[in-house]
Hints:
The protein is an alpha+beta fold. Helices cover 63% and strands 19% of the residues. The chain folds into two domains: 6-123, Beta-Lactamase, CATH 3.30.450.50; 144-198. It has helices at 28-38, 75-93, 97-100, 107-123, 125-197, and strands at 6-13, 16-22, 44-50, 53-60, 63-70. The chain has a five-stranded antiparallel sheet, with helices on both faces. β3 (44-50) and β4 form a beta hairpin. The radius of gyration is 35 Å and the shape is rod-shaped. The model has no long low-confidence stretch (mean pLDDT 87).
Amino acid sequence: MSQESFIYSFVARGTMILAEYTEFTGNFPAIAAQCLQRLPSSNNKFTYNCDHHTFNFLVEDGYSCCVVAKDTVGKQISIAFLERMKADFKKRYGGGKADTATAKSLNKEFGPIMKEHMKYIIEHAEEIEKLLKVKAQVSEVKSIMLENIDKALERGENLTTLADKTENLRNQLRFRYWNFRNLRYSEMNEGKGEDSRV
């Protein structure tokens, strides 16, 4: 990945950009700001494509992190950058400073930090991709295991139901056996009674 892979980034509270960073000129800050205005407020990740660039957003607890990247940069790499930037921002400003900061007032402090995060992600993109693949595989295995556990529990319920039905059948057979036995006993007694009269 080249240094031009990430073009622009910002952190915003609501629709107010608190800190931004770029080394390039262009209309991407305006497009990113327009996208920010349209973002749902729910915690989520969003990606918009425009002019061979991706506008990637991570929204959490009223704050939005954005990175504009070339469309050749994988979405997972952009999200990894956003996660890293969000964690650092929360660590530095989570105690309330971000809640009262004015527009672009954190540029001097956090702008150079965003630059460092961009540089780190670009330099370690290959390792990050491998790590993300491993995480995806672990997540897939976890999902399969949970599905298998659900099936086993379902079978367990079926076994419980089968055991209950077996017990009911056993009780019915026992009842019928005793009824049959009593009937035979009654018939035998009746038969003996008739023989004694003859």
